[in-house]
Amino acid sequence: MEGNDSDSAGDLLPSPVEEQREDYIYEVVVQSNSTNPSSQFADVALLQTFKPLIIPCYVLVVVVGVFGNYMLFYIICRARKMHNVTNFFIGNLAFSDMLMCVTCVPFTLAYAFNPHGWVFGRFMCYVVFLIQPVTVYVSVFTLTAIAVDRYYATVYPLKKRTSVATCAIVLTGIWLLSCGLVAPAVAHTYHVEFKEEGFTICEEFWLGQEKERQAYAYSTLLVTYVLPLSAVCVSYLCISVKLRNSVAPGHRTQDQADAQQARKRKIFRLVALLVAVFAVCWLPIHVFNVLRDIDIRLINKRHFLLIQLLCHLCAMSSSCCNPFLYAWLHDRFRTELKKMFTYHHRVGIPVNHCAASVVL
Predict the structure, then answer these.
(1) Where are the domains of the chain?
(2) Taking the chain, what is the end-to-end CA distance rounded to the nearest angstrom?
(3) Adjacent-strand bridge partners of 117
(4) Phi-psi label, residue 201: left if phi above 0, alpha if psi -120 to 50, beta otherwise
(5) Angle at 215 (CA atoms; ends 211, 218), nearest 5 degrees
(6) Which residues belong to any copy of the G-protein coupled receptors family 1 profile domain (predicted)?
(7) CATH fold for the domain made of 40-246+261-329
(8) CA dist 318 to 68, 226, 335, Å?
(9) Is pLDDT larger for residue 130 or for residue 16?
(10) Are 125 and 118 in contact (CB under 8 A)?
(11) How far apart are CA 323 and CA 340, in angstroms?
C-alpha cells in the first residue's frame, strides 16, 4: 500500500522534461513582454473597460444559441415525421452549436477577464481545448453536408436519396475527422502555473516548431473554411440555377405562376442568406489568425485581446443564426413549433369528457 501511495504521488509531480518545457514557455512569455514592460498588460486593461459591453453580448449569444438549438433538436427528436436524413444533419448541427455555446463562451470569458488566468485546473484545460474546436469543426462540416445533401435532392430528384445508414456513417466521420484535426493542437497545449506571478495559462505552444505550426494553421484554414465555403457556394448556386430553370408540368394559371416565382425568390434569398452568414461570421476570426501567424506585430498590441474576443464573438454568433436559417424559416418546423405551445381541444367529445392535450 505504501509503495502504491508513493507511486501515485510521484505521478502528480511534473517530470524533468515537463519542468524544462514550462521553464521554456515561461522564458518565451517573459521575453515577448520584456521589450515594453509598461504595455505588458495594456491590452488586458483595455479589455476590462469593454467588459460591461462584451459580457451582455456573449450572454445574448448563449441564451439565443442554446434555446434556439435546443428547441430545434427537441423537435427533430420528438416528432416522428421529422425523422429524415436532412433533419438528422440539422439535428447534429443544433447539437454541436449547443455544445459550442456551452463550452466556448463561458470558459473563454472567464479566461479573458479573470486576473489569475486559467482557474479551471489542468484536466479541464485539455478537455475544454479539445471540445471547443471539435464543436466548431463539426458545425462547419455539417453545414457542408447539408448543402451537398440539398444539392443532390434538388438537382437530381429522381436519384435514390441518402439512406439513414449512410447519414450515420457521414455524421460519425464528421466527428472523427474533427477530433483528428484537433489532435495536433491539443498535443501542443500546455497548462503552466506561474506561482510567483499569481496566474496560470492554458495555451498552445509549438516549441521550436514554427514551420510545423504555420503548416497546421494554414491547412486547418483550408479544410475548415475555404473548402467548406466553396462547397456551400457551389451547391447553393446549382440549387438556385436549377430552381430558376425549372418549369412545372401542365398548364398553369397566372396565380400559380406567380406563386411559383414567389417561392423561387424566397428560396434564392434564403440560399444567399445562408452563404452570407456562414462567410461573414467566420471571416474575422480566420483573418485574425492569418495575420497573427504571418506576423503578430501586424495586430496592434494594445488592442490584441479586444480584437481577438470580438472576432470570437462574431464566430459564435453563427450558432444563433443557424436555428432560424435552417429550421424555423421552413414551414414544417414552424408547424411543429406551434404544436409544442398550442393546446388542441378534441372535437366531437361531450363537454364533460373534453380533454386538452399538447401535441408534440
Answers:
(1) 40-246+261-329
(2) 57
(3) 200
(4) beta
(5) 135
(6) 68-326
(7) Rhopdopsin 7-helix transmembrane proteins (1.20.1070)
(8) 12, 17, 24
(9) 130
(10) yes
(11) 16
